[in-house]
Amino acid sequence: MTYPPSDPSAFDRRTVLRGALGAGLIGLTPIQAGAAAPVSFSSDPFTLGVASGDPAPDGFVLWTRLAPEPLKARGGMNAHPVEVTVEIADDPAMARILRSERAIAHLELAHSVHVEIEGLEPGRDYFYRFRAGDAESPVGRARTLPAPDAKPSQLRFAAAGCQRWEGGYYSAWRAIAEDQLDFVFHYGDYIYEYGFATHDKDGAPWPRTMPKDFPACYTLTDYRRRYALYKSDPDLKAAHASCPFLPSFDDHEIANNWAGDSDPKHTPAEAFLSRRAMALQAWYEHMPVRRAQRPRGPDVTAYRGFRFGALADIAVLDTRQYRSRQPCGNGFLAGCAEAEAPDRTMLGAAQEQWLATRLRQGDATWRVLAQQVLFAPFDWRGFPRIEDRGAPVADVDTWNGATAARDRVIAMLDEAKTSNAVVLSGDLHRALALELHRDVHHPDAPAVGVEFLSTSISSVGGAPANDAALAAMYRNNPHLKLFSDQRGYTRHIVTPQQWQADYRAIDSITAPGHPAQTIGSFTIEAGRPGLITR
């Protein structure tokens, strides 16, 4: 696993805010090592489960949070630090303990722990559990990455996200847990920041609701409670315990369609950055990520790289924190000239440079851009609530709101002579399979890669109203090879010869326990960009 080089910030309002937050204005003070008192629990402190993440060839991060009463402001914990022990074994019964590590869970981090394990063997399974006082957690499975020069025969992983609690049950996460994968890429929208509601915007009742005392998230306590609710779901806990996650974030971890230092409602930047700082703090406290991903006030280094031996190089990107503000007022728009401006960005200059360098220096068979939002051009005419005025309609919250930035990334792929480029994305609550072309205005131009956009776990989507509208959508988007409005995830099976993407769907999320089925499957042959229907 690799991280981008540090990028010292200019002395601006973000720097000032980081200093204020670091001084303790919202409790983000540096954690001091302190003596942990003996503790006993009257109820299970591991209500939010266990997780592993950000694997390396010699280890991974192990995470848990002590929360015997998870929906309370402090999770039912007092202010005292608590010693937590994690045991690592090479068998699921935990009969052969290989090592034991200790960590201190502090109130300042919501009594979460992030234990970075090193010194293990590459490319193999390990098992772990936590202990705190007289309490013991469930057992989780982690897996190290192959050695950098290894030549793995196969990689199996899932891409998933968009899991609004009210939208329905998390049966897709149970299916992912049963797949026993190498890892999961979570593209974001782990939580939704909206307040309690019984019905959706069309008046239909939600399959399940949050507690009534859950307002829209603005404070650190709001965000912490929201994560606690989501992570209490048994299917999500099972998925986390089944394999490592590569966590990212999109917009709803903070506010809908936020961009850079602003939200689309144009909240003053200083106020929004305070909200962003609290939201990212809660994200860190609940994700199995490394200390390098701990926020500094409103800023976090979330983009980073993972190498799966000689088989795949994965760049996890951040398309929120550094992007230009939303163009033309945000939304689904026709003829937004601002979106075409050459100085607009999705990644920011430092991240673009990091990605270009990584692509030039990479030599893995498959080059993967794991990111949050639709990368390919897309015309939304024909969808409900989208007015057709005779011109293409673009969602400017995607890369269609910064077309020059997309052109620069395609140029990077060209310069690096990347013949096996795969873009992973989500956010749209629909499943799409698309080909990426060198000239985005001419779909018959040579393909430079493909995009697999995963549907939502539970968040509501939408589809063209009828068969004629669906057919028009395909005509308007000739690079589109699959569209589905079902809930689910995408499972990827990668070998040196081919990449297979299976679109997995749940027939109903209004009740728990429904199985996943493959509704579409595509392959890419190594060295031949383009999608082949299976």
Automatic annotation (TrEMBL):
- Protein known as: Alkaline phosphatase
Which PANTHER family does this entry report, sorted A to Z? ALKALINE PHOSPHATASE FAMILY PROTEIN (AFU_ORTHOLOGUE AFUA_5G03860), PHOSPHATASE, PUTATIVE (AFU_ORTHOLOGUE AFUA_6G08710)-RELATED
Domain Phospholipase D N-terminal: residue ranges: 48-144
Gene3D superfamilies, A to Z: PhoD-like phosphatase, Purple acid phosphatase-like, N-terminal
Q: Where is the PhoD-like phosphatase metallophosphatase domain?
A: 157-503
CDD domains membership = MPP_PhoD
Give the highest taxon in the source lineage.
Bacteria
